[in-house]
Amino acid sequence: MYRVLIIDDEEPLREAIRILGDWEGLQVDEVLEATDGRAGLAMLEKHNTDLVMVDMKMPELNGVEFLRIVEREYPDLLTIVISGYNDFEFTRQAIHSKVVDYLLKPINRHDLNQALRKAIDILEAKRQLQSESITRNIAFNMSLPKLKEKIYLSIIERSFKKQSSRAFLPLIGADDPANRFGALVLRILNMEAVRDSRFNSDTELLYFAVANVINEVAVDNLLCFSFANPKQEREIIAIYTVNGGYPQDLSFRSERFMKKVVSTLSDLFGVLSAGGIGQACQNVVELAQSYEEALSSVLAIDLLKLKGEAVIGSAGKSVVSKDIHSFSSRVPILRSALEAGNLNHAKSVMAEFAKKIKVSGAFSLGAADRTVREIVVLLNDVVLELGVPAESLPPSGGERALRALGLRTDFATFDQFESLLIQLTEYYGEQIRRSMAANRPFNVDDIRAYIDNHYFEDIKISMFTEKYFLSREYLMKLFKQQYGYGIHEYVQKVRMDKAKELLDDSSLKIQEISEMLGYKDKNYFSKAFRNYYSLSPSEYRANQDGEGKK
Fold first, then answer.
1. Is the per-residue pLDDT at 481 higher than 70?
2. How many CB atoms neighbour CB 62 within 10 A?
3. Where is the Response regulatory domain (predicted)?
4. How many CB atoms lie within 10 A of CB 75?
5. DSSP code of 305?
6. What average pLDDT score do residues 503-513 get?
7. What are phi and psi of 324, to 5 degrees?
């Protein structure tokens, strides 16, 4: 994350920059402000700042003077110049100070974010160079792995042109005709749990550690280069290279290698993984097919048979269920439950769907992924129709989007998969509740009417706070202002008034009256009645009988 300082004596301009800047997309977590160059220097002393945006014409200390001081005292600080004066003196100083960009007022969104992106790219490059893993051959050591990763990804995505990219072949050993290549795929089943407990919630650090283990595990002279798939969460791709060998021998060696990898990752970090192995090939371009074979064997692993342990899929094996697990037929029922605010019913619908999958006998990891995506798409449509704003919803079933909503997406067992479905149900139910509460006109009479009609139930204030999306304190204060009673007091009053009415009917036993009023215990009802009227139900009834005889 980065910190940016805006220096300008005009508050409207500072505010415009704050509004127009794509700070989140640029990974800027703090934007500071100063009204002139001198105040800006004071801020630089106080805060570790990555980028300064400075106006050229300001009181106290103008932009030219500020840049000269920065050039001398903060030589590594990046600057972007802003000016409403297309003056050569300002431009000359900006060039001399090697500013990142020079923006003229009025500032527009595109130019601003283009300049900011340029600065952030420079900062990111600098941070890479300052990494602890830097060696004396830093430029080569830092760029070579990334370059190899890009080469392998282009091969896997079938965009690599062997003829035009011949110069890159030696970097991956593809210039040696004796070399054989194969792809392995590793899916981290408990990524979030391990990341949070062992890697300080840093996904990239987890990926780095896993890739490092894979690269360091040596079996039968297989050389391995691995990296996280940038387009698929929790997936590590490993490309192995071996000199010579027969197909059956390479298959055996690669399987041994994969078994050692999943075992080592489990022992070191508690990582539960699902592995897939692609066949070895002589032509490096055929790695695309090897990767697809490895991925298919991972996605074909039967989730119903996973018991929270690492597993390796079998090449060419597929898991086929007799039932097609489509959720679309259950959407109307689930929608009805969510719209009515009956979350328990909605969760039971989802649980029943999970149960049907479980008894089907087979359910692959690939089918589980597709099911989550289908449910997200279907429920997005439902809640949008019910007035939930689009910005509250995940754009797709992608894991990053779901985690951004606070959902846990790990599933190393079917029970954990079912838990994710229940989480989704709860999330969408909450969004509907919030939307309906925000759009529902509130009238305190509704609470009184509910109590009058449901006095025999267990009435809690949280029922109303959740329904109307109002604070407990505000609701209680509003009700008391309107009726002179607190909500609990009013519930008690209604029950006691009704108790008198029922006690007047001599055919009803006190036990029956107690149950009719919502009291499970006759003694508790008698005690409540005595506290309210200073006599017991029996005494009240006796008094009424005595008056009737008179």
1. yes
2. 18
3. 3-120
4. 8
5. G
6. 90
7. -95, 115
Question: 327 with 374: CB under 8 angstroms?
Answer: yes
What domains lie within the chain, and their CATH numbers?
Answer: 2-129 (3.40.50.2300), 143-312 (3.30.70), 328-438 (no CATH), 444-549 (1.10.10.60)
Whether residue 140 is predicted with pLDDT greater than 50 in this model: the reply is: no
| Number of Cβ atoms within 10 Å of the Cβ of 110 | 9
Using alpha carbons, list the distances in angstroms from residue 146 to 171, 198, 217, 228, 253. Answer: 11, 25, 20, 11, 27
Quick one: average pLDDT of 175-179? 90
Say what the pLDDT of residue 63 is.
84
Q: Is the pLDDT of residue 89 over 70?
A: no
CA–CA gap between residue 411 and residue 478 (Å, rounded):
46
H or E element that contains 313: none
For residue 406, the number of C-alpha atoms closer than 13 Å in the C-beta half-sphere is: 6
Kind plus residue range of the DSSP H or E element containing 185:
strand 179-188
Give the Cα separation of 403 and 396 in Å (integer). Answer: 12
What whole-number distance in Å separates Cα of residue 155 and Cα of residue 289? 10
Asked if residue 325 has pLDDT above 60, the reply is yes
CB-based contacts of 93, cutoff 8 Å, min separation 6: 63, 64, 67, 68
Query: Is residue 470's pLDDT more than 80?
Result: no
C-alpha to C-alpha distance for 257 and 251, rounded to whole angstroms = 10
| 266 sits in which H/E element | helix 247-269
Query: DSSP label at 3?
Result: E
Q: Is the peptide bond before 106 cis (omega within 30 degrees of 0)?
A: yes
DSSP string, 341-392: T-HHHHHHHHHHHHHHHHHHS--BHHHHHHHHHHHHHHHHHHHHHTT--GGG
User: In the predicted model, what is the mean pLDDT of residues 27-56?
Assistant: 92
